[in-house]
Write a structure and sequence with these properties.
Elements lengths: L3 E4 L7 H4 L4 E5 L4 H10 L4 E5 L2 H9 L6 E7 L2 E2 L8 H4 L7 E5 L3 H7 L5 E5 L4 H11 L5 E5 L8 H16 L9 H12 L3 H10 L1 H8 L3 H7 L9 E3 L5 E3 L8
Parallel strand pairs: 1-8, 2-7, 2-8, 3-6, 4-6
Antiparallel strand pairs: 4-5, 7-9, 9-10
Helix pairs in contact: 6-7, 7-8
């Protein structure tokens, strides 16, 4: 029986092991994977996750002037010359644009997972859609949920988001017996606090949530804490871009 694993920090990603036909679902609930989900929902053309600001600028050079937005943070601070990775603030700016996204944790986790068979982008916003899609297309594969964490540390919000996706994987036919102990722990944590108002409080109690609130981004936390409102399934492509495979394109 193929397993469902949970990695608690991006630093635990073993790129060689990921290469063995694993299906990755990456989470950075505050904010990278929520930002990607929202950008697709807000009609961005595509998203390019990069490792750092230097790579973002290299990518931008190859794009037509006016066709993209540089978005990113490093250790919680907006990169100079970039827009902050908070979706509601950028809703109008992303329409029809390529979003070149650099974050401390989430985009790095996506790139480190690139050797997997498929790399999906998950959040509370789209976790139910991702779980349904993965259940339909990868029911016999080994699934690895990856919490990006926060600069090498465990993050409460990613753990909660992983539990949310695991809950929906089980609802779509996966067996609980397939879950590793860390995955079972995330599932139990989510099921204990599964109400949306409880999830919102968990995000606000987290270290990253407190930092965002201190900088005036409480409305953004409220937005990304919503469960299952986005019917999009972002897939990271080998060429480095993210597309929504739920629309029947860019898959297989």
């Amino acid at each position: 029986m193929q397993k469902i694993h949970l990695i608690l920090r991006k630093e635990e990603i073993d790129e060689q092991k990921m290469n063995n036909n694993k299906i990755a679902i990456v989470l950075d609930v505050l904010m990278a994977t929520s930002m990607i989900t929202a950008a697709i929902s807000f009609s961005a053309k595509t998203i390019i996750p990069v490792l750092n600001d230097a790579e973002a600028k290299e990518v931008a050079v190859s794009l037509p002037k006016g066709s993209y937005e540089l978005v990113g943070e490093h250790e919680g601070l907006t990169i100079e010359g970039f827009l902050p990775p908070v979706p509601l603030m950028l809703k109008e700016k992303m329409v029809g644009k390529t979003v070149v996204l650099s974050t401390t944790n989430g985009t790095v986790a996506i790139r480190r997972s690139a050797s997997a068979k498929k790399v999906y982008i998950g959040s509370l916003l789209n976790g139910s859609a991702v779980a349904e899609y993965v259940s339909e297309h990868h029911s016999s594969d080994t699934i690895v949920l990856i919490c990006s964490g926060s600069s090498g540390h465990f993050s409460l919000e990613d753990f909660y988001g992983a539990g949310y996706i695991l809950h929906h994987l089980l609802e779509n036919g996966f067996l609980k017996e397939r879950l590793s102990d860390s995955a079972k722990a995330a599932l139990l944590f989510y099921e204990r606090y599964s109400q949306q108002k409880e999830g919102k409080e968990i995000l606000k109690l987290s270290q990253v949530g407190q930092m965002l609130a201190a900088h005036g981004f409480e409305r953004e936390i409220d937005y990304v804490s919503q469960q299952g409102i986005a019917n999009v399934v972002p897939l990271f492509q080998p060429e480095g871009e993210v597309y929504d495979v739920s629309r029947g394109k860019f898959y297989l």
